[in-house]
Design brief:
Number of helices: 13
Radius of gyration: 23 Å
Strand order of the largest sheet: 14-22-15-21-16-20-19-18-17
Largest sheet: 9 strands, mixed
Number of domains: 2
Bound molecules: zinc ion
């Protein structure tokens, strides 16, 4: 029996640290509406998915932003209300693709995505099948599982499978519509909070723990097995690793969820950073000693790709304190210290002028501080990305400091191509990212991770948690293994 389906799409995809004093607002988001949403997916071809002519797609609102601090309540409500208004206008729907990241914190709320999907469910009613494809760094709550029929999540970090996962979420939605299936979900919280930097799937034990999910997929009665590392920089009760197994056989999905949870738990102490790690002084000393150049150091606590404020000047201060760098005998590059005022000052002074500026202490005055830097305006680069704005490069001694107008991520070596600075000519490159493999591995074999302060401090035990559920590993390092008893959610609409 063939019929025509009406499927809505929408969501707010954001990752935000509650340890950042810098709140995010609507202006930080890139928002797509209506038909722009479908046009933005690489896995839709000319508005169709898998060649299916029997589906009409209705984009509502899809917002995303560079990770940051918690979303201001009014901004969240503004985006939520617009999504719901657009959703109401396209009812009735047979299905809804809920496209989120899963780690959005909103000021004053404990479960933002749960709140959003509960409101969506209320509008679309129990007969609409909701499917989601999430980042594995999301925190998954009972409220979400109550309202979502089908879960899937990335299985690789870094997320080379992001688009494949989103496409799988849409594929699963259509499969359930075609077969008339409303699946069960088995949900198991795993009381472990680890940063993504330790839990990459490109080395062990992450590789095996995630690799084995495909074994659960093929168990009869299982549709999808998902495992979330979670988002650890959220001081909320929902913060934890989780597994959700979706399927038609409640016993089978419970058994698989237990296996997955236990496997992650058993590996908890083995997860480690993929590169040598130490404090800021140690990384700089190692870099100065290195025969191989350049040495790449990540200022990991202030990483804007995970939610850091992107303006903590600690590494700039430390580098400028090195006599060979201050004198220009050695060269280094630091990306970046966001500061709109300094960009204006550099523009006013002009390229080649000497200026004294104050960097840091604006976005994150809790973990950061103001640092006075005297140098020359090396160059000014007009905005060519959505998020970055104009970028000024200030050169002090041998240190190039990239100063963007807005928070920006310099995720790959090619991000620097447009600045005319040859990365291979430098002694030290300090970036603020989590993963130093792939392209960075191609650039240099010497990559170090500095454990620095910030909104995404990698030293989890040192964070001022007050509201996470205890016991929680690694805060309670000696806690006993939990009794695994996945909660089963009955098919929605029955
Ligand atoms: Zn992620």
């Amino acid at each position: 029996m063939s019929r025509h389906y009406r499927i809505g799409i929408g969501g707010i995809a954001f990752e935000s640290s509650t340890f950042s004093p810098l709140h995010s607002t609507t202006a930080d988001f890139h928002i797509l509406r209506g038909e722009e949403i479908v046009a933005g997916y690489p896995y839709f071809e000319n508005g169709t998915f898998e060649g299916r002519e029997d589906v009409s797609w209705f984009g509502t609102l899809k917002a995303r932003a560079i990770p940051g601090g918690a979303v201001a309540t009014a901004s969240y409500l503004e985006m939520k209300n617009e999504l719901l208004e657009r959703l109401e206008a396209v009812l009735p729907l047979d299905g809804f693709f809920f496209d989120i990241h899963g780690a959005m914190s909103v000021v004053g709320m404990d479960d933002a995505e749960g709140d959003l999907v509960a409101a969506i469910r209320k509008l679309v009613g129990p007969n609409c099948i909701i499917s989601t494809g999430m980042d594995l760094h999301g925190n998954v709550t009972a409220q979400e599982v109550e309202n979502i029929d089908i879960f899937t999540a990335y299985r690789q970090a870094p997320h080379v499978d992001a688009m494949e996962t989103k496409a799988r979420a849409v594929h699963n939605l259509l499969a359930c519509l075609d077969s008339g299936t409303r699946p069960y979900r088995a949900w198991q919280r795993i009381p472990v909070g680890l940063p993504g930097e330790r839990t990459s799937t490109f080395w062990e034990p992450g590789m095996s723990v995630y690799g084995k999910l495909t074994e659960s997929d093929v168990v009869p009665g299982v549709l999808d097995a998902s495992l979330w590392v979670g988002y650890v920089w959220a001081d909320q009760p929902r913060n934890s690793a989780t597994t959700v197994v979706t399927g038609t056989d409640p016993d089978a999905i419970a058994a698989e969820a237990t296996k997955i949870a236990k496997r992650y738990w058993d590996a908890r102490a083995e997860f480690d950073f993929g590169v040598p790690t130490g404090d800021s002084d140690w990384t700089i000393a190692e870099a100065l000693k290195s025969e191989i150049k350049p040495v790449v150091i990540s200022d990991s606590g202030d990483n804007p790709t995970a939610g850091g404020a992107g303006d903590i000047p600690l590494m700039a201060q430390k580098l400028l304190a090195v006599p060979e760098i201050a004198s220009g005998e050695k060269t280094a590059l630091l990306a970046s210290l966001m500061n709109a005022k300094v960009v204006e000052e550099a523009k006013a002074a002009g390229v080649g002028a000497e200026i004294t500026v104050t960097l840091g202490g604006v976005n994150d005055p809790v973990n950061g501080f103001p640092l006075e830097v005297t140098g020359t305006v090396h160059s000014i680069h007009p905005s060519d990305t959505i998020m970055g704005g104009d970028i000024a490069i200030i050169k002090s001694g041998g240190l190039y400091i990239l100063v963007p107008q807005r928070r920006i991520q310099f995720g790959m070596p090619e991000s620097f191509d447009r600045f005319g600075i040859d990365l291979h000519s430098l002694d030290i490159i300090v970036i603020k990212i989590g993963y130093l493999d792939h392209e960075w591995e191609d650039l240099t074999p010497v990559r170090l991770l500095a454990l620095t302060p910030g909104a995404v401090n990698q030293d989890i035990v040192s964070l001022p948690f007050q509201r996470v559920q205890r016991p929680f590993y690694p805060l309670d390092a000696d806690m006993a293994e939990p009794e695994w008893a996945p909660q089963i959610f009955a098919p929605i609409g029955e």
